[in-house]
What we know:
The chain has seven helices and ten strands. The chain is α/β, with parallel strands linked by helices. Helix 1 crosses helix 6 and helix 2 runs parallel beside helix 3.
Amino acid sequence: MIPRQCVFITGGTGYLGRPLIGRLLQEGCEVRAVARPESVRKLPAGCQAIIGNALDPSSYANQIAPARTFVQLVGVAHPGPAKAAEFRNIDLVSAQVAIRAAVQAGVEHFVYVSVAHPAPMMKAYIEVRIQCEQMLRESGMNATILRPWYVLGPGHRWPYALIPMYWLMQRLPATRAAALRLGLVTHQQMVRALHNAVLQPCAGVRVIEVPEIRSGGEFLGKTQVAGAN
Length: 229
């Protein structure tokens, strides 16, 4: 009998975490997710709740094994330029401790949601995510890094007004590359990309950019040598 794949998730009660867990459970995976006591009820039925704090690895590190895949989804909700301190105190710290805990637990594949870059705005947010990407490369783990710019979905719909501008920018040679790199992806596309990343582990570091997130289905991504930029 083939053992079920075991996946460990931080940020599992959030915007992307809940639907991802639901899809993985449907695939027959065993899913463990860190949650605070007051948030456990938000986890889908069938998910094993690990009561803890994503900023405190001692609250969950000894419960990662036997998972071989770790998905890091912790982040400040509705990122904006005024939240630089939150990015450093939450996004950065949660990723730092998660990467260290995953290495110690023998995790083979780490899935991380970064952000599309370079970009003309959100400097502090991008700096934190790039720093986390570099930590992953230096960890020695196989890793999939997804780089969306903005994920459209429930409560995240205002950028629909920008679609005509994107349409124009993609048709002008001077702005086409930036428009594609910083394009909008839907909530459904993002969850599907995360689902595929978990079920299609890579060797080395694989980067999934906006066009690949949008494409759906299986993806190859750009596999890089660990430690490369």
